[in-house]
Design goal:
The protein is of the alpha/beta class and about 325 residues long. The protein has 2 domains: about 160 residues, Glycogen Phosphorylase B (Rossmann fold), CATH 3.40.50.2000; about 150 residues, Rossmann fold, CATH 3.40.50. Helix content is about 45%, strand content about 10%. The chain has 12 helices and 9 strands. The longest helix is centred in the N-terminal third of the chain and has 25 residues. It starts with a helix and ends in a 5-residue tail after the last helix. The model has no long low-confidence stretch (mean pLDDT about 95).
């Protein structure tokens, strides 16, 4: 997503400078580590400010400011240079202002408070941002997007396999794989095949979940872009429940290729899915199994859904739409 944003800003006519490689992320909630990173960030500020003066920076843009990885330098540099400060995919998490991430959460909140413009990607993020926004702050919706001007060639595989794409790690990803296994156990084994793209430290657990299905499940491993595109092209549909996904670019990639999606109606996920009914979380694997069975049994309905998904991505989630929104936000603070 960060690379796509750089491409979008450059397409909008701006020169993008990677100002810092400071890594702030703390996934464990280590207060000592956070304090060390904050000190390193403060030490880096004079050099960044001097560089900004020398190179004539006219805005600072930070992607993904949140409680585990706050922007510790952008607002200070922007204030020193008297230039606009913009955030993309910033989130507020009041419940993290105490506890192991308190220092970082407060820093993330401060960055949000000081931003002239915040581009939010989902309505879930918008709610907290709008609730706590300073009076002069501008909030703009920037839907997640693919780094492309056009869709890939349309394909249709009437007898293709189900495709699931996801990292194999503990937590939310493993929860999605568990739902997949529970769902497939409800379907006759002669009605489906599954290909899984992805790898990770929990691969052994995913393989154990899928072992009862034998040869019905094929593991593809970590795929190159070309190989993943080939997997989309030969699939009948994509199945990924989406437990706690922020949004999920794989949904956009699959729909751009013409695949209908079987997923649960979850915050974040629904932001990137072609508008139609999706099974609720409360309905559980049984509702997903029913939807899979229905789609696998109706080729023409699947083709229609796939084409609608392509049109939805083309209209809302490609590079040109993102460029337009970014231009509007930058222009609102005098950056053209």
């Amino acid at each position: 997503m960060a690379r796509a944003l750089i491409q979008a800003l450059e397409t909008a006519g701006h020169t993008v400078t990677l100002a810092s490689r400071l890594r702030s992320r703390d996934g464990a909630g280590n207060a000592v580590q956070q304090q060390e990173v904050i000190a390193n960030a403060n030490a880096a500020l004079p050099g960044l400010i001097s560089r900004g003066h020398a190179e004539g920076w006219n805005a600072w843009v930070t992607y993904h400011n949140y409680y585990k990885a706050p922007d510790l330098i952008g607002a200070s540099v922007a204030q020193a240079l008297d230039i606009p400060y913009l955030l993309i995919e910033a989130t507020r998490a009041a419940k993290r202002l105490t506890g192991p991430w308190a220092q970082y959460a407060n820093a993330a909140e401060a960055a949000c408070d000081l931003a002239d413009v915040i581009f939010y990607l989902t309505s879930r993020d918008e709610a907290a941002l709008r609730r706590d926004a300073p009076p002069a702050q501008s909030l703009l919706h920037l839907p997640p997007f693919l780094n492309s001007n056009t869709l890939p060639a349309e394909t249709f595989a009437p007898d293709g396999p189900i495709l699931s794409v996801g990292m194999m790690r503990k937590g939310d990803k493993l929860a999605s794989y568990r739902i997949i296994a529970e769902t497939l156990a409800m379907l006759p084994k002669d009605t489906w095949r599954l290909e899984i793209a992805g790898d990770g430290p929990a691969e052994g657990q995913v393989r154990a979940m899928m072992a009862p299905f034998g040869d019905n499940v094929r593991f593809l491993g970590n795929l190159s872009t070309a190989d993943l595109n080939a997997a989309y092209a030969r699939a009948a549909l994509m199945f990924w429940p989406g437990v706690n996904e922020a949004f999920g670019l794989v949904y956009l990639e699959a729909q751009a290729a013409g695949l209908p999606i079987v997923a649960q109606n979850r915050p974040g996920v629904r932001e990137v899915l072609s508008p139609e009914p999706y099974p609720s979380v409360e309905a559980g694997p049984a509702a997903l199994a029913k939807e899979l069975s229905r789609q696998l049994g109706d080729r023409e309905a699947r083709r229609t859904k796939g084409r609608a998904a392509r049109e939805y991505v083309a209209e809302n989630h490609l590079l040109p739409a993102a460029v337009t929104t970014l231009r509007r936000g930058l222009a609102s603070v005098g950056v053209h």
